[in-house]
Every structure is written in structure tokens, then in C-alpha cells.
Design a protein that fits this description.
By secondary structure, this protein is an alpha/beta fold. The protein contains seven helices and 18 strands. Bound molecules: zinc ion (ZN). Keywords: Leucine-rich repeat, Nucleus, Repeat, Ubl conjugation pathway. Pathway: Protein modification; protein ubiquitination.
Length: about 400
């Protein structure tokens, strides 16, 4: 009876370790033995008497871990492999004692690992390369462990209940990552690099609740696959300006933050469930607008409006990057025209049922309404809005 498994090279020098990837059969045929010629990087045979050994191949870069083998069979097997490595004629190799392993004897690669205490956290051993789901909670981690960022098959990463202050940009290199849980950490921001990473194509679930985040970057809305977003119990003073672009988003919660109002684009969302309970929402008063209008418009404002309205292509090769950034957050007047830094701003009341099927009450008074920002490109547009508003509230 013997067991064997294959794992990727590198990391622990310990001969025996957790198996990572298993093959279909343990039977090495002569043909395969030919492939061993000068292809072995190292043998780990310290525990051969206990029926364990590891053969590290050069190509493919894997470790073949053998365990629970009969010690003398294992020794003759290793001798044969050594000869094959040196290029000895395979016909002459003593392989007759080898019996193919049964499927049940081949260990399955480990895909899930749940760690819920500091004591169980692996400090010296690497994480199995085959992991798809890794949870490391209550481990007092102050930063994301770089060893986790090599796990290219990872789909679900749960680092909730730790002390993480900052996320490394390289989390964006986890190409398969669909779920990221960072509930109850010490995060103060969510970096732009992550919004621009491959997470744009994979990330569907993001839990940033119970952190210290004050604002999310404009680029956050490039995480276009997001379905589930939890932002509760942070210090958010605003939601991302282009929130409405998250077209896949169905579950949004941002309860107990410091939101005074919602971005104008919020009305483009189409949610199943929305929870904005416990925010210090302002009482909307359309009659007291904030006016940032220069008449006549500055040349910059006129050019910027024309660029957006006529969809003139621009980019960092044509314009200074701060202008590009400004253009990316151009506001839209109710007439459909763009405005950049000259506009009239006010807030109006929106019933949240307009964007979500199920709405958690925003306060203890039973309300489901929240203030949403409106922009106007000119006095004409604002006065038209005001006429309609006053008529409907007569
Ligand atoms: Zn207008």
C-alpha cells in the first residue's frame, strides 16, 4: 500500500508535506521514466525508512510526494528513478516490484482551508497551492500574508476579524478571486490599484463592513462584476460618485455610516435589497441650493462641457491627467448636459423603493426615503426644476 501526490516546487524544504495535486495513477511506466532523464532537481529521502520520500522535478515544476509506502519497495523505486535520471537504459531498470496505486490511494488535492485561531495559523508551512477557499479569521493578522497571494486558484478569501490596515495591490493578481471578506479589520481605504486590477472581471462579493473607511475611490465602480457589497459600520461620508454604474449589483448595505446624501447616479441602480439604516441623512431643501455657477462660463468649463456632451475622445496622451480625472467625474444636469465645476447643486427626496425591491428602513421613524443630489448646468435648468417642484408641493 502506498500513497503519492504531487505538489508545486518551492517553499518548505521538508521532504513530506501536504499534498497539493494528485495524478491519476501511481504507476510509472518505462515511457515516463524516460522523461526523468536529467529532470530531477532533488531527492528528499530523510524519511525513507518510514515509507516517505519526495522527488522534486524540474519540468513540470512539481514535487512528487510518496507516503505510506513499503520501505524496501520505495528504496528500489527511488533507485530506479535515480538511474533513469542519469539516463540508464530503461529496459534494464528493476521496476517489476512496483504495483500501480488504486485511485483510493491517491490523495485528493486540498481545496479548502479554514483557520479560526492564531494558534492554528501556519507560520512555517506554505498554504497548499491547490486552495480555492481560504479562511483565516481571528488570527490577529496585521497585513495580508504574501504567501496567500501566490494561490492562483483562490476563489474565496475570508480574512474577517483581523487587524489588517492596508490591502496590498497584489491582491489584484488573484485572477480567480470571486469573494473577498474583510469584515471587522482596520482598513482606512480601498486603493485605486485594486479597482484597476483583474478583480474587475472576477470579484462578485466584497465585504468591507466594520472597518474605518471614509471614502471609496471613483474608480471603485470599475469593479463591474460586483453583485454583493457590504459597507456597514464604516465612516463613509459619501458613496462612490458613479455608484450607478455597478449594473450587476443586487445587494448593497451601507448602514451606520456618515452619509449626508446619496450620489445623483444612485438612481440608476437596480437592487434586490438595500440597507442604509442609521446614516445622518440631511433634510433635503431644494429651495436652498449651493450655487457654484460663473457667468459667463470659464473657457475651461465650456471646453469640458463640450468634450463630454459631444463625446470627443480624450485621454492622458492628449490632456493633463488632472483634467482627465475631472472629466471622469463630470456631473449630469437634469437636461442631460454635462457640467464640471460650474453648477447648481441641491438635494431632493428619493424613495429607495425606486432602486430596490426590499428596503430596510433608513431610521426608526419608518422612513424609506433618502436625500439624493441633483445638479443643474444653468439658472434656466434650476428654475424649471423649481417651478415643477413648487407646483407638485403646492
Ligand atoms: Zn441643464
Amino acid at each position: 500500500m502506498s500513497q503519492w501526490s504531487i505538489s508545486r516546487n518551492g517553499g518548505s524544504s521538508d521532504a513530506m508535506r501536504t499534498p497539493r495535486q494528485a495524478g491519476e495513477t501511481a504507476c510509472l511506466q518505462n515511457k515516463q521514466l524516460r522523461l526523468l532523464k536529467e529532470n530531477i532537481e532533488q531527492f528528499f529521502t530523510k524519511f525513507v525508512e518510514e515509507g516517505k520520500a519526495t522527488v522534486r522535478l524540474k519540468e513540470p515544476a512539481v514535487d512528487v510526494c510518496l507516503s505510506k509506502a513499503n520501505a524496501s519497495n520505495l528504496k528500489s523505486f527511488l533507485a530506479a528513478v535515480r538511474l533513469a535520471h542519469r539516463g540508464t537504459d530503461v529496459e534494464a531498470l528493476p521496476l517489476s516490484v512496483l504495483v500501480p496505486a488504486k485511485t483510493s490511494e491517491v490523495e485528493k488535492p486540498k481545496t479548502k482551508m479554514i483557520i479560526t485561531s492564531r494558534r492554528d495559523y501556519p507560520l512555517t508551512k506554505n498554504f497548499p497551492y491547490s486552495l480555492e477557499h481560504l479562511q483565516a479569521s481571528y488570527c490577529k493578522l496585521a497585513r495580508v500574508d504574501m504567501r496567500m497571494l501566490c494561490l492562483k486558484k483562490l476563489r474565496k478569501l475570508d480574512l474577517s476579524h483581523n487587524h489588517i490596515k492596508k490591502l496590498p495591490e497584489t491582491i489584484g493578481d488573484l485572477v480567480s478571486l470571486q469573494e473577498l471578506n474583510l469584515h471587522n479589520n482596520h482598513l482606512e481605504s480601498f486603493c485605486v490599484a485594486l479597482c484597476n486590477s483583474t478583480l474587475q472581471k472576477s470579484l462578485q462579493f466584497l465585504d468591507l463592513s466594520q472597518n474605518k473607511i471614509k471614502a471609496l475611490p471613483v474608480q471603485f465602480c470599475q469593479l463591474q462584476e460586483l453583485i454583493h457589497l457590504k459597507l456597514d459600520d464604516n465612516e463613509l461620508i459619501r458613496l462612490p460618485f458613479k455608484m450607478g454604474q455597478l449594473s450587476q449589483l443586487r445587494f448593497l448595505s451601507a448602514a451606520r455610516n456618515k452619509l449626508p446624501f446619496l450620489p445623483s447616479d444612485f438612481r440608476n441602480l437596480s437592487l434586490e435589497k438595500l440597507d442604509l439604516f442609521g446614516n445622518p441623512f440631511e433634510q433635503p431643501n431644494p429651495l436652498v441650493p449651493s450655487i457654484q455657477l460663473k457667468i459667463p462660463l470659464t473657457l475651461l468649463e465650456s471646453a469640458a462641457r463640450a468634450t463630454v456632451n459631444y463625446r470627443i475622445p480624450y485621454g492622458r496622451h492628449l490632456l493633463p491627467s488632472h483634467l482627465c480625472e475631472d472629466l471622469e467625474v463630470a456631473k449630469t444636469c437634469q437636461c442631460g448636459n454635462a457640467c464640471l465645476s460650474c453648477f447648481i447643486q441641491t438635494t431632493v427626496t428619493m424613495n429607495l423603493h425606486y432602486v430596490a425591491h426590499t428596503v430596510v428602513l433608513v431610521d426608526n421613524m419608518g422612513g424609506t426615503e433618502a436625500p439624493i443630489v441633483c445638479y443643474f448646468c444653468s439658472l434656466t435648468c434650476y428654475s424649471q426644476f423649481l417651478d415643477r417642484y413648487l407646483q407638485s408641493n403646492r
